From TrEMBL:
Matches recorded under PANTHER family: NUCLEAR INTRON MATURASE 1, MITOCHONDRIAL-RELATED, PROTEIN YKFC
Entry annotated with the keyword Protease: no
Highest taxon in the source lineage: Bacteria
Protein known as: Reverse transcriptase
Xref: Pfam families: RVT_1
């Protein structure tokens, strides 16, 4: 599986304008069994109430049945179980999605496929949920920019409720840029539309990708690559005369500017750009303001 993914990653990077085909077939008996062996058996169960040990008791038949369903396009993800966990540093809680066991397996392999296709496209300013990158690397990048560049103004921004509010139509438009495999795109739509189960009630998922889902981080990176990273790189930096840099970790971003008037212009451009994303200042920095992002 690693060899196949490495080959896809190489092709995707060498041919940045090419749409990749024949990807869904990588979600096969071998890759699903490998992912089962790697999953943490102590994780909470989803709406199916199936644990790793229970699934393993009839592993070969379970995997073969899952693969057969996928080949017949009969596989349908189950609703995501929603729970709430404390948000560090605040009294708030954030929603977390817990997938059914087979959905965890499929999404985990699907996430690796999407990472192989897209990681070579992502800009160097993106650090969240990427191979060999982490939050400490993002902090080091911010420190280096501030120390080495002529920076005087820093904008620290968070996108409020990002994972719960990603637009499904835009997600699939961004996916279509690089993936031509109809079966893989159909599978992604089914995951996005699988619904949520909260307090025994099922809710439709018309927007968003639940935090906790294995595929949500890479979908978030794909979304913000097109909606934010490229916008800042191709529009903002070319428009401004002073130094301008950004560092993003998932939906948290730091924007660095040399000139005060250009930092202020950055806010104005957001407000007049197409698309809407909520930028939430850090606690104690004033009310939440609505800013626009170019899709």
């Amino acid at each position: 599986m690693e060899t196949k993914l490495a080959r896809i990653a190489r092709i995707a990077k060498e041919r940045p304008k090419e749409r990749i085909t024949s990807l869904a077939g990588l979600i096969d008996k071998e890759s699903l069994t490998e992912r089962h062996n790697q999953l943490n058996g102590r994780k909470a169960a989803g709406v199916d109430q199936v644990t790793k040990d229970e699934y393993e008791s009839n592993l070969e038949n379970n995997i073969e049945s899952l693969v057969e369903q996928m080949k017949r396009q009969a596989y349908k993800p189950q609703p995501v179980k929603r729970v709430y966990i404390p948000k560090p540093g605040t009294d708030d809680k954030r929603p977390l999605g817990i997938l059914a066991y087979e959905d965890k397996l499929v999404q985990s392999v699907l996430s690796d496929i999407l990472n192989a296709v897209y990681d070579g496209d992502f800009l160097d300013c993106s650090y969240g949920f990427r191979p060999n990158r982490g939050c400490h690397d993002a902090l080091k990048a911010v420190n280096k920019i501030i120390q080495d560049k002529n920076i005087h103004y820093v904008v620290d921004a968070d996108i409020r409720g990002f994972f719960d509010n990603m637009d499904h139509e835009w997600i699939m438009k961004f996916i279509d840029h690089r993936i031509a495999d109809v079966n893989l795109r159909r599978l992604l739509v089914r995951f996005l539309k699988s619904g949520l189960m909260e307090n025994g009630e099922r809710h439709e998922t018309l927007v968003g990708a639940p935090q906790g889902g294995q595929v949500s981080p890479i979908l978030g990176n794909v979304y913000l690559h097109y909606a934010l990273d490229l916008w800042f790189e191709k529009v903002i930096r070319k428009r401004f005369k002073g130094a301008a840099y950004m560092v993003r970790y998932a939906d948290d971003s730091v924007f660095c500017f040399e000139r005060k008037e250009e930092a202020q212009e950055f806010y104005r451009l957001q407000a007049t750009s197409p698309g809407r994303v909520i930028f939430s200042p850090r606690k104690g920095e004033g009310p939440v303001e609505e800013r626009g992002l170019a899709p």
